[in-house]
Structures are given as C-alpha cells and as structure tokens.
Amino acid sequence: MFALPSLQALLIYDREAILAGEFWRLFSGHWVHFSGTHLGCNVAVLAAAGLILESGTAVRTARLLLVAPWFISAGLLVGEPQLRCYGGLSGIATAAVVALALDAFARRRQDPRAGWTAAVLLLLFELKTTFEWYTHRSLFALDTDAGYSVVPLSHLLGGLVALILHLLPAARSAGGMPASLSRRFKATTD
Q1: CATH topology of domain 5-189
Q2: What is the mean pLDDT of the chain?
Q3: Torsion angle, CA of 74/57/121/165, rounded to 10 degrees?
Q4: Residue 86: what are its φ and ψ, rounded to 5°?
Q5: How many angstroms separate the CA atoms of 140 and 80, rounded?
Q6: Tens digit of pLDDT for each residue in 49-60?
Q7: Is 175 left (phi over 0), alpha (psi -120 to 50) or beta?
Q8: Where are the domains of the chain?
C-alpha cells in the first residue's frame, strides 16, 4: 500500500484516528507498508512461516492471521502511547514464526529434530527482538531512508499472541483451567 498514499492514509494505524473511533485501523494498519523493502521483508517471512503452518492446519493459521492484528494493535495502543502511526506485517510475521516454533516444540517427543528446530527459532526470535529493542534498528528491513523505525513491542506482542493461541486448545480441554486446578476443583465440588 506504500504506492497508494490515499489508501494508506485511510488504513494505517493512526493513534488519534483510532481513539476517535476508526477501529478498523487496528486491523488494517498491518497491511500498510512504507516501502517496497519493508513490504518484501515482511511478506517473505510471513509467507515462509505461513506456508509451513498451513500445511499443519489452515484453521489455526487463519485464526492467527485474524486475531494477531487486533491483539498487536491493542497492545501498541496501550504499551506505546507515543506511537502515532504504525504499519507493517512484522508483528504478524513474528507471530507466525513463534507459532511454528511452538508447533515444533509440541512434536519434540515424536521427532527430536523438531525440538531443536523450536529451540533455534525461539532463540533467533529472542536475539532479533533484543537487538531491535536496544538498537532501535531493524535487523532485516534495510531501507532506513523510508522514514519509519522498528517497533519491537509489535514483535513481542506477536510472539505473545502466538503463545496464547497455542495454549488455548489445552486450556479448553481442561475445562478452561490447567488440569491440576481442574482436578482439584472437581474434587471439592463432589
């Protein structure tokens, strides 16, 4: 959307517009990019992780793509009050990579290589996010003249939403609470 300024202005995450009631920007802002490099880096990571995730289950991938933008934007609204504008898929791409790592971790007993894959992906996520947090520079998007800067909180929130969505099925199967608490509650009500 970087090539269509009027559409970009309508869709970008704009804090003032959101607080004035333009809530669609919480979702649409992630699809706005500030340069071709910005778009290319985000799409490459999201496509690679998304294709692998989708081979497992399209429903979980769709849920991630629908929930993550809202969650990340709400987190930015609260956690980065000085952030006026935001755009890009990097938080969602990060969510997809973390979801991929969590899926691999869940398969570690059947395939020990999956455990190593999970560990490497999570370590890379941590190193990348830490680098960006402390340097205020993107590790991958090299187009620094485009007038935007990295927002590491969006990547942390992406990882968090992936973790929450990964844990939800386990919580539902235990009656909405950890199994140990579920058993304890049942014993006290019998």
Answers
A1: Rhomboid-like fold (1.20.1540)
A2: 83
A3: 30
A4: -150, 145
A5: 22
A6: 877 877 767 788
A7: left
A8: 5-189
The reported pLDDT for the residue numbered 67 is 96
CA-to-CA distance for 125 and 68, rounded, in angstroms?
17
Number of C-beta neighbours around residue 125 at 10 A: 19
Task: State the Cα–Cα distance between residues 148 and 83, nearest whole angstrom.
Answer: 11
Residue type, 174: A
Give alpha helix (H) positions in 57-151: 58-79, 90-106, 112-135
Q: What is the pTM of this model?
A: 0.81
Token match 């992906």: residue?
A: 121
Would you say how long the chain is, in residues? Answer: 190
Amino acid of residue 36: G
State how far the Cα of 85 lies from the Cα of 116, in Å rounded to an integer: 37
Residue 178: pLDDT over 70: no
Token pair, residue 78, equals 């609260």
Q: What are phi and psi of 85, to 5 degrees?
A: -135, 150
SS (H, E, C) 19-56: HCCCCCHHHHHHHCCCCHHHHHHHHHHHHHHHHHHHHH
Task: Give Rg (Cα) of the chain.
Answer: 18
Residue 85, SS3 per DSSP: strand
Q: What is the spatial distance between Cα 151 and Cα 49, in angstroms, rounded to a whole number?
A: 20
